[in-house]
Write the structure tokens for this entry.
Amino acid sequence: MEKKPFVTKEQLDEIVKTYPTPFHIYDEKGIRENARHLKKAFSWNKGYKEFFAVKATPNPYILKILQEEGCGCDCSSLTELMLSNALDFAGEDIMFSSNATPAQEYQYARKIGATINLDDITHIDFLEKCASIPETISCRYNPGGTFQITTDIMDNPGDAKYGLTTPQMFEAFRILKEKGVKHFGIHAFLASNTLTNLYYPLLAKTLFEIAVKLKEEVGVHIAFINLSGGIGIPYKPTDVANDIDVIAEGVHKVYDEILVPAGMGDVAIYTELGRFMLGPFGALVTTAIHQKHTHKEYIGCDPCAANLMRPAMYGAYHHITVMGKENQPCDHKYDVTGSLCENNDKFAIDRMLPEVEIGDLLYIHDTGAHGFSMGYNYNGRLRSAELLLKEDGSVQMIRRAETPRDYFATFDFSDILSKMDYDI
């Protein structure tokens, strides 16, 4: 598939007059349309709800858009819970899925009425002692082994630190039932960034089957089944995008085959999508500021891995468009780099692009999820601004760029940096 920017060269030329690069920019129109499409695809399930994975894009302006489209929040930390609560998400619209969870975080989750998703059987006693057991609770399931689709191994849950084993699920549900839990949820995340319409239906089959057994053998009410995330996006032009309509109908078919005959046709289906919801609707916009001609040809840009870690951390591919040169031949080979003192600080390696000149705007695709949010301050690098391209074509800053004052702010308890010069 051809990858096209959601913003034009002319628009960016105007934007950079006010907001210098680098910055992440998000497409409000695309976000809203995608959220509506997802909701419609799963409309066959009366209780369906998408709990957006806040970790993917923890920006209040983005969360408000998704809230307006009927989404909840999936949180994994205290600050994500605090953010969701501050935005007036109701407790039942907040899912708290964490691991190695501190007592303070469970206490806050109980305070705001979030639905807790336990990651380990030992957390039952821990939660009871520090915050009490609620009437509705979920447990994260890990069946172990490998997760396969036909002959392809998608991921290896047996090596993952998350979730309860099959025997632990039955034991946990029995214990929780004795402690007064009335409504149960089941959650699992068995593969990441899948590009197949078969993943969700096969995951659903696994969860639906254990749900029926838990109901029959333990005598509990399964209120919801959370398919979590894992639906990927086509980062490469050669990737084939998932079809959410086909995926949702595949889950529907398995639902009717397994849950309905067991008298469980009232079970709500939840999802916790981050990448699918936001990935294609964000981009990192950069300026080429240096060229280097040594053993290879390098283009040095104004952001670095502090702005987008995925290529350095995972070797992940992000497509790059040289704005204004979309129709020129890709006949130059470059490493596109940032300025960190790390050799893996590269947005692209041996990438064929049109000839890049200093001052060109480079649009790095698909950074809407796990882009800005994975940023960090190594080398004292500062994180960039976030902008929103609104439906009417205007642009709104939704996070300002960090400044040196932000970087040094945690020394505010001391006068050791009293001579710091911020006038730069």
User: Anything to note?
Assistant: The CA atoms of residues 28 and 62 lie 8 Å apart. DSSP finds twelve helices and 19 strands in the chain. The radius of gyration is 23 Å. The mean pLDDT is 95.
